[in-house]
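We emphasize that the prediction below concerns an isolated chain of 358 residues; any contacts that depend on oligomerization or on bound cofactors are therefore not represented. The input was used exactly as deposited, without trimming of termini.
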Amino acid sequence: MNFFRVFTASEQLRDYLRTELIAGRWQKKMPGAGRLEKELGVGRNTVEAALEQLERDGLLQNLGSRRGRRIQIATNSKKPKLGIAVLLYEQIDRHSHYMAELELALVKAGHSLHFQSKSLTEMGMSVKLVKNLVSQTRADAWLVVAGSRDVLQWFSEQPLPAFALFGRRTGLPMAAAGPDNITSLTAVTHSLIDMGHSRIVTICRKERRLPTLGTAERAFLEVLESHGIHAGPYNLPDWIETKEGLQALLQSLFRVSQPTALIFDEASILTAILQFLGTRSIKIPEDITLICTSFDPAFSLCMPPIAHTKSDYLPIIRSVIRWANHVAAGKDYRIQTLTPVRFFPGGTIGPAKGKSFM
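Result of the prediction step, given as a token string:
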């Protein structure tokens, strides 16, 4: 997902404590750092850092030396405004930073979230399985994360309110929010072509390719065609989403005419690409440009830093809150919003090999 990141130990503990606070595990005052250290088996510095982060989030109020911390968030002592069932793309999304912030914002607004035990990927994006899950779940509304076109199409046809967070949502009659990948991908592609690149390949999930190409992917191919570059399966290849499938794809791409630029939509793919290029002594960016259309903090630790795009998740969270508040008030709300995406060149982008630019 676009906002995947690796958490530090204190951030992981903060999110655990936040979940317990929201669930009402502690009342009025937070246990001290010493007690939490013993109960949770983590270091004092980690506990203190996590508690300080919860203070900054507004969940705790520091009452001063030896007086502890007051819990600022109200527990669910009354019926929430809206009971929202959350259907994740992958279970790991449950621990993403944006999801933790979204859960907190919804609870503060008086709603409740219920995360489903099965993710979309675990159900193979099967509309039949999703339909069964929905029929067996008590919820006022659904939040669907990175759904396929078929899944979101089904949700858009149901009387039960649903919000598409990312995914193939464009043109469907349902509330939705996500980054403006069309504008960012086309801008990046134009820049690459201006730098002499013609063999540009985008590697993306099947949900972006099937049953038809997503709007951003179509725009990518259209930019290539507009510059006289014949666009086809080479530029947007199908592949089996396993480690063996990714290796087979990379081998096929580099067998004859290797790409001069690779664009990939998930940070998790980067390690495999770097390993593949390293075993073949392919230099970055001298031989190939790499761009990720999502962000991971680890990019800044790489030498050179990975070129990537990044969007602000806070406007997306606000869009979800507006939807939930409107639905709770009995209103029909189907507005879709796009969040601007910024491009950070990093050090893995350069002119095509053999080209010289000022």
